[in-house]
From TrEMBL:
<dbReference type="Pfam" id="PF20628">
    <property type="entry name" value="Dyp_perox_C"/>
</dbReference>
<keyword id="KW-0479">Metal-binding</keyword>
<keyword id="KW-0575">Peroxidase</keyword>
<dbReference type="GO" id="GO:0004601">
    <property type="term" value="F:peroxidase activity"/>
</dbReference>
<protein>
    <submittedName>
        <fullName>Peroxidase</fullName>
    </submittedName>
</protein>
<dbReference type="GO" id="GO:0020037">
    <property type="term" value="F:heme binding"/>
</dbReference>
<keyword id="KW-0560">Oxidoreductase</keyword>
<dbReference type="InterPro" id="IPR048328">
    <property type="entry name" value="Dyp_perox_C"/>
</dbReference>
<dbReference type="InterPro" id="IPR006314">
    <property type="entry name" value="Dyp_peroxidase"/>
</dbReference>
<feature type="domain" description="Dyp-type peroxidase C-terminal">
    <location>
        <begin position="138"/>
        <end position="298"/>
    </location>
</feature>
<dbReference type="Pfam" id="PF04261">
    <property type="entry name" value="Dyp_perox_N"/>
</dbReference>
<dbReference type="InterPro" id="IPR048327">
    <property type="entry name" value="Dyp_perox_N"/>
</dbReference>
<dbReference type="InterPro" id="IPR011008">
    <property type="entry name" value="Dimeric_a/b-barrel"/>
</dbReference>
<comment type="similarity">
    <text>Belongs to the DyP-type peroxidase family.</text>
</comment>
<keyword id="KW-0408">Iron</keyword>
<feature type="domain" description="Dyp-type peroxidase N-terminal">
    <location>
        <begin position="47"/>
        <end position="134"/>
    </location>
</feature>
<dbReference type="GO" id="GO:0046872">
    <property type="term" value="F:metal ion binding"/>
</dbReference>
Amino acid sequence: MQKAQTGVCAEPNLHGLTLLCNVMTDDVDGLRRKLGRMPIILDELDERFSEAMLNGFVAIGSDYWDIVYPEQRPLYLQAFPELRDDDREAPRQPFDILLHIRSDRFDANFLAARALIEWFGHDIEIVEQIRTFRYLDGRDLLGFIDAPDNPRGLRKREVALVNASEEPAFAAGSYLLLQKFRHDLRRWEHIGPQRQEQLMGREKVSGERLSEAEIESVTHASKTRLLDQNEQPIPLLRQNMPWGDLREQGLLAMYCSNQPKKVVEWLKRRYYADSQGDYDPLLDFTQAVTNASFFIPSPTFLLKHGQPATDSESQTA
């Protein structure tokens, strides 16, 4: 069984650092070689900071994939969909590479990120860096338990990783849809806990769903349930973490899946009003300001394609 990059199915950590980057070099062969060593470097950093449970991954943007790996493309890799309905929107911003690091020590993340940036040198530039953190007992800054229905244990691999029988070249990889939400916490806190529970469809402390008798209107829980229109499970692993400071705050949502088309339909259900005019009510209090689509290759794929071509391969090409 092929292994995935360590950060895809990892357990929650205390600190995270996500770097959204663009490539600045035309030396694609050299960049492939550097990408090929990424999982090895992360493993070495994990050994250095073993008590910190360091993990991470590198992901390739949908728009850049054909430049760096033109021979093969993941079957379902598409640009992030333009979601827009009324005043709800999620504009997409393409990035070439995403570097994601998590651990239980912020200094370990910082040192690991510096090591990776040094490794890439001037080949990439950081467009945005997002420092994330665990809030209380795994809650969003809105005060509710984040993704209480997230898969656990081996189920994570089943929903997040590409199956070798379906896409053998990309086995143990994962499709990633990213949304950086900015919350309006002042407005959210103004409505009070009881109204918040009605909008979320869950109890604030326990995270349990409210009974149908208690619910007054459409809820976030109903619009984000992991079942499609045919009542079939939506394969989705959320590796979300809050971000922010005292000026602005939000949630970095990272959706890993082996069937991204179903995740896109799940997102559309949230953004687009249905025949009754209902949409995810939480979107009245938060906006996704950064949205992008990536693929997270397996270490095997990265290493294989990062090796220099032999003379015979070069002549064939």
